[in-house]
Amino acid sequence: MPVTHPALRIAALTWLVPACLSAAPVDFVRDVRPILQKHCYECHGEKKQKSGLRLDIKSEALKGGDNHSPDIIPGKAKDSPLIHFIITDDEDELMPPKGKLSAPEIETLTTWIQEGAAWPEGVDLTQLEDRRNHWSFKPLQATAPKPKGEEIDTFIDAKLNEKGLHRSPPADRITWLRRVTFDLTGLPPTPDEVTAFESGIRNRDSGIYAAVVDRLLQSPRYGERWAQHWLDVVRYADTHGFEVNTERPNAWPYRDYVIRAFNDDTPYDRFIKEQIVGDLTQQDAATGFLVTASVLLPGQIGKDEPSKRLARQDSIDEIVVNIGQTFLGLSIGCARCHDHKFDPITAKDYYSMQAFVAGVQYGDRNLQTPEAIAAREEMKQVKFQIAELDKQLARFVPMAKSGVKRIMVSARENRDRFMPVKAKRVRFTIRDTNSLEPCIDELEVFTTAGDNIAHDAAVTASGEKVTTDRHELRFVNDGNYGNSRSWMSSEKGKGWVMLEFKEEHDIERVVWGRDRQGKYTDRLATSYVIETADISGTWQVVADSDDRQRFDTRDRTQPAFSTQGLHKNEVAEAKRLMAQKAPLDDKLQKIGAGQIVFAGTFRTPDDIHLLNRGDPEQPKEPVVPAVLSALGDLKLPKEAAEQDRRKALAEWIASPQNPLTTRVMVNRIWQGHFGTGLVETPSDFGRMGVKPTHPELLDWLATEFIRSGWSVKHMHRLIVLSDTYRRTSFLARSNELENSFDIDSESRFLWRFPTRRLEAETIRDSMLAVSGQLNVKMYGRGYNLFDKRGGLSGFEPVESFTGDGLRRMIYAHKVRREPEAIFGAFDCPDAGQSTAIRRASTTPIQALNLFNSRFTLDASEAFAARVKKEAGNDFTAQVTRAYQIALSRSPTTDELQDTVPTIRDHGLATLCRALFNSNEFLFIP
Amino acid sequence: MWRLMHDALMIPHPEHLSTAGRQLLDRRGFLTQSATALGSIALTRLLAADGMLGSKGPVIDPARPYAPRQPHFPAKAKNVVVIFCAGAVSQLETWDYKPELIKWDNKPLPGGPAVTFQGPSGNLARPQYPFRPRGQTGKWVSDMIPHLAELTDDFAFVHSLTSKSNTHGPAENFLSTGFVLDGFPSLGAWTTYALGSENQDLPSYVSIPDPRGVPQNGANNWGPGFLPAAFQGTTMSSKNPVRHLAAPGVSAQTDQAARSLLQRMNARHLEANPGDGKLAARIASYELAARMQLSVPEINDLSTEPAHILKLYGADDTQNKDKAAFAKNCILARRLIERGVRFVQLFNGAYASGGKLNWDGHSDLKEQYDVHASILDQPAAALIRDLKQRGLLQDTLVVWCTEFGRMPFFQKGAKGRDHNPDGFTCWMTGAGVKSGVSCGETDELGQKAVKDIHPLYDFNATILHLLGLDHERLTFEHNGVQRRLTNVEGHVIREMLA
């Protein structure tokens, strides 16, 4: 509970002070410390520091806790929060919570503070431990040379011996092949790959294992698999998150960048630099990394200044948090409100890190590759050509009041065309709406020459319902479309707007809409009349809604363009123009794709201040860009340019001297193969993180990583070709292995291979691959998992997929926080927060989804069709083939006998459905 | 803390498996013994000795993630129904009576903010509904919600809540997850993670969206965040049952054949791969799913509800379809609680719609609230009455909440109120709650909490407390932080406890 005015609450205490002044001075060691020891150290001592307060060390005690620092104000007992808390009547606040101190104890503490809180140096019974003294902050340790090619196994075996664990025998070869194929590509091996491998083994081809690994690492499927691990950590999504969860339509070039980077084996140090400052090296898509988080769009942020400041702080915070946990494995974000509880990261460190990225804003940026620049130039021209054609086409709507039935009104845009008429004024009168007060985003009036003259007109209206900066009368002819720049009438179901021009014009068309951005369909004028007055002031009706089709909300088919009701000559002309336009539209879409990326925009950095308790309304001293003080002394002047800041930060992180960067990455790679890292907490290498099981191995891998030129693929090779990786997961019955199981059932020390369930994406991708449906088209805009790509209300899942919907799941349009209807239940991250470890929970909902969904049934049918094509009509051949495709092995005789009757009676798809749900299919063996 | 990397040591308990599964487990004799007892102890000791063990939380059997688990201390409430009114209900039109506002009606607020969330402020505005004293306590409550108002004596109000955001999205996150950012576990996820559920044939945590649509921050209100997906809310309503309950277009015989074939495949595989608890857990999950396929349609079938119950809730209202649909959701909530489902979240109010579909009364508050109140009031009151008359309220906590409140003045040029995170009201009733109390106060115009200010953390801490959970001890390690529902804050609001 916050204490607003501690001073006021303890006014009653003042009597104590004079009473004590007459006594001998209070001695800290003799009088004060015993009280603290007895009542306070349990929660505010060496073991615990509740609310960040520690009272057993002078420097810490005088600094104070998180909430009320300083808690001890020498000479001012009644102002000191410490005193407040020991005398308050509020049960929730009273310290110690177990019961009030005795009156003499309270008196002693009060007097001590009032007399100046004298705390002699060197009397403390304990010392502040050096938080920098932590294994992961120290330089990589060199290890004694190990036999070449067997380094990993040597380290692992040494630990097994030390722990009294026995290594399991090697797995059978096909198990290894299945394991490594899932691991590196996220798909099962094909029957042909199994056959080729078996024949290599038969021919005693000693290089066959390495050849398989090379093939897998060269497969484009590899980058798709490993990019997913990275996107999990950086919480990538294709929507902005929060309430509106709008589509982020240009996020995917960053996703493609990551896939390419893994496939190209981009050196990891370069990969880091590109993601932080790729704009320096024409890798603009890479900086999508900076802005992967949820963000509030301007319209969702309050108009009041504190709301704006908080939103900005939140958005910078997300960048710092992302950098900290992704590259450094540190929870820097904890220091936003107070010094880190466990790691040597101060609040000042945190805000100094903010200063590196204080010029980054969430937004789209043009790619700066030569291709992109040329494409944009071309787009400009194409757009101009299209605009010209549109202008001409705009004339081809049926005349109002010509006897032809016109299409019903649309919330987006409506054109009312009439015989040319001289007009000084135009009045648009609304007689009814589909709901509430009518709203018009823009009213345009076109002359016979095709010019919109509404801009310069004076505008009046029946009334207006103002929402500042959103609904104002002046927006009705300001040239800006959309709800947030519109006029709203003050009356329900009616109202009028009038435009008066400086002079009389020959006009022939009025164009108007409710929301031309297409988000709103309410408040639409469903009945209206348009009148004009010439210079003499005589009014006449030029168009109204009476000859339009009745408004019907259920009718969603709004033709983009219709020649209905046009004169024959006009139809021919309109068609000619349409034919010219169609290829231009296609062209625009093609060259437009991927030229823009949601990768942040850069501006002069904000001034960053240390904020008291993280509150933007309580700024303290300004800070300059500086790296974490426990790890380095790099500091930039406050004048440092925006890009230079990011560059300096990137170089510091991607330096071989940084003790965290390489350790964190090789651990992530290790985790990708064994399910658990050598450090079990992959994004926490701080003091609360779990210590490595094999510290020497971790350092050796990190050193080797640097030596190899930061090659991720090199690390894969070392790991998957080791004996350790080849061990069986099977638990053979032997006393030694039973004993190993007793000691280390999870195989954290890798005496056997730890199996794990496939991740959500791998299950879906593998079902598609096995059923022969997988579309391996790479890159580009994501396909839909829902009926829409972002937005406010519920998301209806797509149930049946074809074409692009059969691509790998990494190419799905990722709606933040919206779990995919089937695979979301398989612990698929929702991109709200970073996911460094995939959980693998087991729930009945998973079983329902995987057993009953349309997706599974479709895939089962497709799989059955494939098997029939490859195996013919013989049941035994069918079962055999299905097993080979799905499980990389042939069925046993028992299995054949068990299965054939089922497919005879219930069809082959029944077997396929069971295979997709089987444990053997769903686990990395 | 439950780490799935550890789940090999959590062999499913044999009694929760089929006969076949049990036999298989028995055949692995040495494994069941060593894995459940010796194995875990030895592992723990080994890792702890090396400082390689994370901290501990509830131990979850992967074969029975919803198995009931012990709270930290004896619980007052076993189950919870949260009635979540999306869009921010005005405290001034409902529970927080401010007669001063009548005096100040249509006058500017001296020193008030010139600009609030949506734009410039207008003049102060009186409560838009008459208030009158209710029941024994004589507490003044608005005529907007006449049915709920009759229950005033049973409620424990807190009038001095504050939120960390004045934007719906982050504020609904804050109410539901304790954090304004996306991606943190929801209250229901924390609860079922800690306590499991009394009924194994139904999801442990059910979210029932408003018949008009999902609330403003959508699935994040019932998301698992970084907790295992097993603890996310399952959405269903009287209109839309759980997805994938049955395979479309597959005959019962074929369905059974597939199920039985799968069972045999998995049994053979388990026999060949002993010592892996994950495999047995998955087998068990299919058996649970089969039971759920039967129990979910049953729970959704309201045809067994007698006419007087439909009438009590207003589910028979032919004039107001939204009300009738919400009433059915309320009946569904009762049925779920009756069957021991741990956590039910009942939404009233849908997505952002200028206040048309939820409580976001910016433009014409009275007109909009007339609509929403008529949907909320009778069904919600009936739910409480019905739980009470069946004796369920003794074990069930009912929470009414909204993400923030509204300003005492209208917006300029409008007849509605803007967002106000600095002082608003929520209440609880039922198990463990002290009836007829009002905690905290806002200032005389109802703009800011001034007495016993309670950030929403306190409200959530109190809910957990009633469930027998210490909000400081219910933690989960995520990326280096022991995360809690209440971050590093929160005090139980003792005055609300019976």
From TrEMBL, chain A:
<dbReference type="GO" id="GO:0020037">
    <property type="term" value="F:heme binding"/>
</dbReference>
<feature type="domain" description="DUF1549">
    <location>
        <begin position="151"/>
        <end position="361"/>
    </location>
</feature>
<dbReference type="Pfam" id="PF07583">
    <property type="entry name" value="PSCyt2"/>
</dbReference>
<keyword id="KW-0732">Signal</keyword>
<dbReference type="InterPro" id="IPR011444">
    <property type="entry name" value="DUF1549"/>
</dbReference>
<dbReference type="Pfam" id="PF07635">
    <property type="entry name" value="PSCyt1"/>
</dbReference>
<feature type="domain" description="Cytochrome C Planctomycete-type">
    <location>
        <begin position="40"/>
        <end position="99"/>
    </location>
</feature>
<dbReference type="Pfam" id="PF07587">
    <property type="entry name" value="PSD1"/>
</dbReference>
<feature type="domain" description="DUF1553">
    <location>
        <begin position="645"/>
        <end position="899"/>
    </location>
</feature>
<dbReference type="InterPro" id="IPR022655">
    <property type="entry name" value="DUF1553"/>
</dbReference>
<dbReference type="GO" id="GO:0009055">
    <property type="term" value="F:electron transfer activity"/>
</dbReference>
<dbReference type="InterPro" id="IPR011429">
    <property type="entry name" value="Cyt_c_Planctomycete-type"/>
</dbReference>
<feature type="signal peptide">
    <location>
        <begin position="1"/>
        <end position="23"/>
    </location>
</feature>
<dbReference type="InterPro" id="IPR036909">
    <property type="entry name" value="Cyt_c-like_dom_sf"/>
</dbReference>
<dbReference type="InterPro" id="IPR008979">
    <property type="entry name" value="Galactose-bd-like_sf"/>
</dbReference>
<protein>
    <recommendedName>
        <fullName>Cytochrome c</fullName>
    </recommendedName>
</protein>
